Protein 1
Amino acid sequence: MYMNWTEKKPIRVAILDMNEGFINQGMRCIREILNQFGENSHVDLSWDEFEVRLEKQVPDLSYDIYISSGGPGSPLESEGNEWEQVYFGWLSKVEHWNSNPAHGKKKACFLYMSFLSTGLQAL
């Protein structure tokens, strides 16, 4: 059965908060953009937030869209941490899902905050 253009399929978004408990404008902006998009487009849009670094929370594969925020510090400093293993385990599941042609692709957006001084030191 085809969906009529007047029927609205709910869109579920998972926000992966990588800010390690730090308040920042990035998360506020993500929420604001989602609110504005839902209202302006008359879309039934909802989201859940997952605290990746402190709580090691990641979403399941039931969401339509995934947004991963940037986070504080250098990504090199956290290499091998438990949260990183959980996060990359989740990412592997998304990649595996998307590699199956029978599944609809999961959409993901990965935000990255550049830390120039750390990057220069690594060079």
Note: The domain at 11-122 is CATH 3.40.50 (Rossmann fold).
Protein 2
Amino acid sequence: MKEYAPACERNSQVILNVLQRILAHSRTVLEIGSGTGQHAVFFANGLPHLQWQPTNKESLESINAWRGEAEFENVLPAKSMDLLAGTDHQYLRLPEIDAIVCINTVHIMAWQGTEKLFELAASAISPGGVLYLYGPYRYADRPLEPSNENFDLWLKERDPLSGIRDFEAVNRLAGLAGFELQEDLAMPANNRSIWWSKR
């Protein structure tokens, strides 16, 4: 069954504008937390030079339904991936991974999932490759936006292990995993586009 997320409709183009610039020289992208599958087909259409591998813990049927309807050859069938269950990417059978894209996922999963994400990135991404995250973040030098404060409360009521993450903590994980911050860009609705390159 094909699922639909209004947020994907709203943010797909602005995210694609960033990805077209930072993934211009990439070939194979692993998407972590593909959700409904809307982003996968939208980005694959806008980035035809890429081989796009969508993954998700669940909703694989929806991702494959969007893929089947779009019929883009550069979107691979969705694979199941649960970061909390392990970080072995070899079963994906990708010759190499030039980039990982993870949208609106870090604040949904437990913090251990973010740690596992960077472990995966360290082992899977080729040198010079890209790790891109999109979503809301807290910053030590300024208060969280009121809309994100409300969103954070909603997340924690839904699941106490979720919540908007501290940028500094996430960037520290990136550094420990061998990645260097390249850009932290303000996006609509108090979200951020943040990407690192592998040293």
Note: The domain at 6-198 is CATH 3.40.50.150 (Rossmann fold).
